[in-house]
Design goal:
Blueprint (H helix, E strand, L loop, with lengths): L1 H16 L2 H17 L1 H17 L4 H7 L3 H16 L7 E6 L5 E8 L2 E6 L4 H12 L3 E5 L5 H18 L6 E3 L6 H6 L8 E5 L2 H10 L12 E5 L5 H13 L8 E7 H18 L4 E4 L1 H7 L9 E3 L13 E7 L1 H12 L4 E5 L3 H10 L4 E4 L18 E3 L7 E3 L5 E8 L7
Helix pairs in contact: 2-5, 2-7, 3-7, 5-6, 6-7, 10-11
């Protein structure tokens, strides 16, 4: 790991000086290598999927692990999108003259070396590599053992692309070991690594946050809420709720708790609950006493209801389970979200402008939405091309972390011989 760190640091200096054309050439060359190796990559993924089934991986992890044709094409499109994004490196802002005569501003620069530890999703290997390259950073990637074959197949294409484009081959290093000790070494390489990005389950991220000596950009879990306000449009309330919960279960931006204002609960909650069950008959609704009183006699929901307990309000299920609570107005909704949420993504459904503006001001989350599905909290959907992860931290980066999240700024000063008196 010391050698990996040294190689990354050396490569980072070359990448920081690389021009936009060279970086885009590397990305597009990697894109071509991946297209040519599609059958090999999907075959490697099938091996990982079979091993996952043999090792009894849960459904959420298997969903994240699988590379379908559609996901592979999406991965390639994300890479192409990153190549078309403006290069942030060297951007100078806030130029101003001081009374002393000096002129100063801020220049955007790479972080240096990024270490990333992640589980399951092989597409993350490519997303992270592309964002690091475009932002002039070197990156060390340690994927989960469950995606080892897929990650190595993708890494081979990245290496070939870097070599052909004339950029340092150690600019992207995908570790070829599944030894957990490598993680312990990586997160303490303070001489060579500038930031760690963990992406995976809560247990992994808690461990990294606890043991790391290198700064960490992270989010622990995605306990996302949708609040149906008393002034909600009924059709929007139903459609957004169904999408937010049932579009995919194994993602951190999936709705886990539905809050419904008691003023409209009698009329709207049954419609929303029925639509969600219709979308997935396996769905279980864990309801509070007021929601149960409204829904218990609904024949369409028979077998889908159970009593919520205190833990349900704090749980990221990553499964066809939804916590449902009837709430007494805006104050109670904001208080519930700020108390039980994970500061990831929270949504209000309302046609009341004043309420919507209050919600986005007072809900303390990295993404706050009005009349839209929480599933939009994603680097690709935000126009970042891809994301290296989601941050719920408040320092440096927050929300989906794209190119700008992998940069910092330094002060630059232009003088004409001025001296300080």
């Amino acid at each position: 790991m010391q050698q990996v760190g040294k190689q990354a640091r050396q490569a980072s200096r070359h990448l920081a000086a690389a021009n936009t054309g060279d970086k885009n050439k590397a990305l597009l060359t990697i894109h071509q290598k991946l297209k040519e190796a599609k059958s090999d990559i999907l075959a490697a993924n099938k091996i990982d999927m079979q091993n996952g089934h043999n090792n009894n991986l849960d459904a959420a992890l298997l969903d994240r692990l699988e590379l379908t044709d559609e996901r592979f094409e999406g991965m390639l499109q994300g890479l192409k999108d990153v190549s078309t994004l403006p290069d942030p490196i060297g951007e100078v802002t806030d130029m101003t003259f001081r009374p002393s005569g000096i002129q100063l501003g801020k220049m955007r620069v790479p972080l240096g070396v990024v270490g990333m530890i992640y589980e399951s999703r092989p597409n993350v290997t490519l997303e992270a590599a592309s964002l690091a390259l475009k932002s002039g950073n070197a990156i060390i990637l340690r994927g989960g053992s469950e995606a080892f074959e897929s990650n190595q197949a993708i890494a081979k294409c990245i290496l070939e692309g870097l070599k052909e484009a004339g950029l340092p081959e150690h600019g992207v290093q995908v570790l070829q070991t599944t030894d957990r000790a490598a993680v312990g070494e990586l997160i303490t390489l303070t001489d060579y690594v500038d930031v760690i990005v963990p992406r995976g389950g809560k247990g992994l991220i808690e461990r990294i946050s606890k043991d790391a000596k290198v700064p960490v950009i992270k989010h622990l879990d995605g306990n996302c809420h949708t609040f149906i306000d008393s002034d909600a449009d009924p059709e929007i309330a139903v459609n957004v709720s169904v999408n937010a919960k049932t579009h995919r279960y194994g993602t951190c931006n999936t709705m886990e708790t539905l809050l419904v204002d008691k003023a409209v609960a009698d009329s709207l909650l049954p419609k929303i609950a029925e639509a969600i069950i219709e979308a997935d008959d396996a769905m279980q609704l864990r309801v509070d006493a007021e929601a149960k009183a409204i829904l218990k006699d609904n024949a369409k929901l028979s077998g889908h209801l159970s009593d919520a307990n205190d833990e349900d309000w704090d749980t990221e299920y990553l499964a066809p389970i939804l916590a449902v609570k009837v709430i007494d107005g805006m104050d109670a909704a904001i208080a519930h979200i700020n108390t039980h949420g994970s500061h990831h993504t929270d949504v209000i459904i309302t046609d009341n402008y004043t309420k919507s503006q209050r919600f986005i001001r007072e809900v303390d989350s990295s993404s706050v939405m009005i009349n839209a599905s929480s599933r939009f909290a994603d680097g690709f959907e935000y126009g970042l091309g891809a994301e290296i992860g989601i941050s719920t931290d408040k320092i440096h980066a927050r929300g989906p972390v794209g190119l700008h999240g992998l940069t910092s700024q330094k002060w630059i000063v232009y003088g004409h011989g001025e001296v300080r008196s």
